[in-house]
Amino acid sequence: MNGSELELVLKDLVQTEGVNASAVVTRDGIMVGFLNKHSQEEVSQFSAVVAMMLRTAEKCTRMLKKGEVIEILTKADVGVILTEKCEEFIFLVAADKGFDFESIKQKRGKIKDAIRGLI
């Protein structure tokens, strides 16, 4: 897959009821893809914050001897954000409060396949 295919699967995911945004970021903090249902503008520091958040979680799990980070679930008062590692990329999905991420497991798999196709 290439960048345009990644864009298509991100668009399909964001069109899912309850999903608000999705992003793919490199571990260095470079935005690869970003779609937001509510606003088309990119947040300038968003990708750097996502990369820093994952690095912090990885450091905490190592220090506490809890293995490797699989995913980060961030709960807020009006929504939830799932952040996952995929190869040397970070994949993020923002959804409404109470959203069942298992319901989009197949779409998440397609995005991970698209990410692997970038390598």
Structure description:
- The chain has 119 residues and is α+β, with helices and mostly antiparallel strands.
- The protein has one domain: Dynein light chain 2a, cytoplasmic (Beta-Lactamase), CATH 3.30.450.
- Helix content is 37%, strand content 29%.
- The chain contains three helices and five strands.
- Helix 1 runs antiparallel to helix 3.
- The chain is globular, with a radius of gyration of 14 Å.
- The N and C termini lie close together (9 Å).
Task: Please provide a brief summary of the model.
The protein is of the alpha+beta class. It is built from 3 helices and 5 strands, in the order αββαβββα.
Summary tags:
119 residues; globular; 3 helices; single chain; five-stranded antiparallel β-sheet; 5 strands; Beta-Lactamase; alpha+beta
Topology of this structure?
Layout: H1 3-14, E1 19-26, E2 31-36, H2 46-63, E3 71-75, E4 79-86, E5 89-96, H3 105-118
> Roughly how many Å is the radius of gyration?
14 Å
Strand order of the largest sheet: 2-1-5-4-3
Helix tally equals 3
From the spread of the alpha carbons, the general shape counts as globular
Decide which structural class fits the backbone: alpha+beta
So, CATH architecture? Answer: 2-Layer Sandwich
Span from first to last CA? 9 Å
Main sheet attributes: strand count, strand direction, barrel closure: 5 strands, antiparallel
